[in-house]
Write a structure and sequence with these properties.
With about 280 residues, the protein is an alpha/beta fold. Helices cover about 30% and strands about 20% of the residues. It has nine helices and eight strands. β5 and β6 form a beta hairpin. α4 packs parallel to α6.
């Protein structure tokens, strides 16, 4: 299962896609909280304007991170943001994780190609894992599909039967794609619990549930009553009667009958009409 494996070790890059109806930030914060507890050094960059509820959530997460709130008073150029990402990324023997919350404000000013180039430059010099959040209903389908090629793992959060569901697609080093749908829950201590695979039960199809003479609705009478059914069953088809008579006959072998016809000669001269 993808989500359960991500809790152990982050891949090169993770993209969490949410929507207005289902928020992906709880799963996003829980993952980076889990990586921090496992000894990773996390740098957190927040570009969404935080709500009051989100501020209280961030205060509950007591681990070392750095924030770089993106606002109109700061330099929003691509060079400045790339420099902010890559600054102070000393390894110190720890696994490095860069958390971006979220990509949506950046994609409103950047192209997907520029974002891919910035992430590639970030991971070119230092071995760092990137965990990013994006709001899927803010962008068009082409932009979201293009992000799938940039990130090695794409998680989409949704609701099913009143439970949180994470639909994940992981691209392995060999290029093979692995997908899974998993239920999950998040505790008050920001821990991902109750991860189990979604098993869709196939509906029980009863073969004999339909009537034997089921016919489509029509203005014409298409079905037969009992008397007509009996009369139809007593009809002997022509080819059956022919086969039965040939089986009882003595000359059961095949034969060819040829009757020669008299030649049809024309007594008139075909060149008569040429004489004038």
């Amino acid at each position: 299962m993808i989500l359960k494996d991500l809790l152990k070790q982050p891949p090169v890059s993770i993209l969490i896609q949410d929507s207005f109806s289902v928020k992906g930030r709880p799963l996003f914060l829980s993952l980076i909280h889990n990586y921090s507890k496992n000894g990773s050094s996390v740098r957190y960059f927040k570009y969404d304007s935080p709500l009051s509820s989100e501020k209280s959530e961030m205060e509950q997460l007591k681990f070392s991170w750095q924030t770089c709130i993106f606002n109109e008073n700061q330099d929003s150029s691509r060079t400045a943001i790339e420099s902010c990402w890559s600054s102070d990324l000393a390894n110190n023997g720890k696994h490095l994780v860069v958390a971006i919350d979220s990509l949506s404000p950046l994609l409103l000013n950047w192209t997907v190609g520029e974002l891919a180039s910035a992430l590639r430059n970030l991971q070119k010099t230092t071995a760092v894992a990137v965990v990013a959040l994006v709001h899927g209903d803010v962008h068009d389908k082409e932009t979201v599909q293009a992000l799938n090629y940039i990130f090695h793992c794409h998680l989409t959060v949704r609701k099913a039967q009143g439970r949180n569901v994470c639909s994940g697609v992981l691209r392995k080093g060999s290029g093979k794609l692995v997908d899974s749908d998993e239920y999950y829950s998040i505790t008050d201590q920001w821990e991902v619990k109750d991860v189990e695979e979604v098993v869709e039960s196939s509906p029980n199809v009863v073969v004999d549930s339909l009537p034997k003479n089921a016919v489509p609705k029509s203005t014409f009478k298409l079905d037969l009553n009992a008397k007509e059914e009996e009369a139809r069953s007593q009809v002997v088809l022509p080819y059956i009667r022919k086969q039965a008579s040939s089986a009882t006959s003595e000359t059961s072998k095949g034969q060819i009958i040829y009757e020669a016809e008299a030649p049809d000669w024309d007594d008139e001269d075909p060149d008569d009409d040429l004489e004038i």
